[in-house]
Amino acid sequence: MLEARLQTGALLKKVLEAIKELITDANFDCSDNGIALQAMDNSHVALVALLLRHDGFEPYRCDRSLALGVNLVSLSKVLRCAGNDDIITLKADDTADVLSLTFENTDNDRISEYELKLMDIDSEHLGIPDTTYEAVVQMSSAEFARICKDLQVLSDSVQIDVTKEGVKFGAKGELGSGAVTLKQNGNVDKEEEATLIELQQNVSLNFSLKYLVNFTKATPLASRVSLSMSSEVPLLVEYKMEAGYIRYYLAPKIGE
Amino acid sequence: AAAQVSIKSFFHTV
């Protein structure tokens, strides 16, 4: 059985907000390591990999591995019934036909209990090879969200060019073109806002902005984001949390 | 325009 108590329930609400528009149904794979999820979007262009490590919960107990098949829209609706400061406890027994959710307020005088029906999901699990990327950009997650949203005004796609001087996001469309360049600035006072680049080789890649904008729904989870790129392989957009991560992989657009 | 590639062409099914 699974029992996982999350002191900051808001984290789970934010996680659901970050994935529910990309994926409809997914298995939460629970093991003694924690709760993991991997799923592709419906059009098989993007992949989401989520990990909530066991040490993010107190207590965390999972005697044997369980796959909890969840409709994410339904789960996020139920999670909207939890207060932002509530402690959230997830429970499922080994038959795993329902997921029990308990929300306790901080004064511990209001306890709400919900049960969500689970479903059998026959999902493909993809093996993600360890990759050494040609370029890794670490930057403010809010800045990344702003750039994606701004450039979406101009085009469906963005060209990302990384050199040792900086990273340039450019878009061209019917109404014109636009570009935002962030210079590498590791010495700025505000560490949270610094743009840092690790570069083996310059890269220039094209990606769909619609997906990137969707990924930025994870912005409330982390102040920093990393973009890992190599020629003609999927972009990795990673938001690190205190006890886990959310990683989005996006297949590039190739050719003219 | 550039063509969108499927993510499945990069990662194998396990």
Describe the structure.
The complex is a heterodimer of chains A (256) and B (14). Chain A is mainly β. Helix content of chain A is 14%, strand content 46%. Chain A contains 4 helices and 20 strands. In chain A, strands 6-2-3-4-19-18-17-11-15 form a 9-stranded antiparallel sheet. Chain A has a 5-stranded antiparallel sheet with strand order 5-1-7-8-9, with helices on one face. The longest helix of chain A is centred in the N-terminal third of the chain and has 11 residues. Chain B has 14 residues and is mainly beta. Chain B has no helices and 2 strands. Chain B is rod-shaped and about 35 Å long. The interface between A and B is medium-sized, with 24 and 14 residues. Strand 10 of chain A pairs antiparallel with strand 2 of chain B.
| Largest sheet composition of chain A | 9 strands, antiparallel
Helix content of chain B: under 10%
The CA-CA distance between the termini of chain A, in Å, is 52 Å
The number of helical runs of chain A is 4
Largest sheet of chain B: none
SSE order of chain A in H/E notation?
Answer: EHEEEEEHEEEEEHEEEEEHEEEE
- Give the beta-strand count of chain A: 20
Describe what is shown at a glance:
The complex is a heterodimer of chains A (256) and B (14). Chain A has 256 residues and is mainly beta. Chain A contains 4 helices and 20 strands.
Secondary structure: elements and pairs:
The complex is a heterodimer of chains A (256) and B (14).
Chain A: E1 2-6, H1 9-19, E2 25-31, E3 34-40, E4 46-53, E5 60-62, E6 66-71, H2 72-79, E7 87-92, E8 98-104, E9 111-117, E10 126-127, E11 135-140, H3 141-151, E12 157-162, E13 166-173, E14 176-183, E15 196-199, E16 203-208, H4 209-215, E17 224-229, E18 235-241, E19 244-250, E20 253-254
Helix pairs in contact in A: 1-2
Chain B: E1 3-4, E2 12-13
